[in-house]
Amino acid sequence: METARAASAADLPAVAELLARAIAEIRQKKGGEAWWRIDAAVDPVAELSARLDDPDVVVTVGLIDDEPVGLIVAAVSPTREPSPIGLIEVVYVDAGARGVGVGECMLDHAIGVLEARGCDGFDSSALPGDRHTKNFFETFGFTARRLIMHRRPRG
Predict the structure, then answer these.
(1) In this structure, which long-range contacts are made by residues 26-33, counting pairs with CB atoms below 8 Å and at least 24 apart in sequence?
(2) CA atoms in the 13 A half-sphere facing the CB of 47
(3) Which of 3, 58, 61, 121 can pair with 7 through a Cys bridge, CB separation 3.0 to 4.6 Å?
(4) Where are the domains of the chain?
(5) Residue 86, helix vs strand vs coil
(6) Which residues contact 60 (CB under 8 A, 6 or more apart)?
(7) How far apart are CA 136 and CA 40, in angstroms?
(8) pLDDT band of 147, cuts 50, 70, 90
(9) What is the pLDDT of residues 69-126, one digit of tens each?
(10) 2-139 is classed in which CATH architecture?
């Protein structure tokens, strides 16, 4: 059975392994190396560990039969308006557990927590050509609002 809940310190070893797999997978995709160089945390496991108790961060673990198979990391981000937005920074489901509803459970949980913390909008991102991630978010009503363009020096 697919479920999702807030991650705890006891989940850190499993969640750290899922995060390592997510980063390795992202780096293999188009735009992944640029993401890794520019946007990825220098020490993602240490950062994740520190963020588990941060009230502005939501770390959701997805489970099948109580076995961790997915991860969402999201944060409350202030805006110029009174209401913040929720930034969904990482979404990952182990390859063998995709397509059965774990991602949906995790996203529902994370968005519910972010809404309870006052967020009135949600942002996430997908790498160029990552149709699976784009389609996943579109299923939940997300639409593109910005594209980031990047170029390396020639020669």
Answers:
(1) 26/127, 29/127, 29/129, 29/130, 30/127, 30/128, 30/129, 30/130, 31/127, 31/128, 31/129, 31/150, 32/127
(2) 13
(3) 61
(4) 2-139
(5) strand
(6) 4, 5, 6, 7, 71, 72, 73, 74, 106, 109, 110, 113
(7) 21
(8) confident
(9) 999 999 999 999 999 999 999 999 999 999 999 999 999 999 999 999 999 999 999 9
(10) 3-Layer(aba) Sandwich (3.40)
Quickly state the pLDDT bin for 68 (edges 50, 70, 90). very high
Give the tokens for residue 13: 């070893």
Which residue type is seen at 71? L
**Tokens 């930034």, residue?**
87
Digit-coded pLDDT (tens) for 9-19: 999 999 999 99
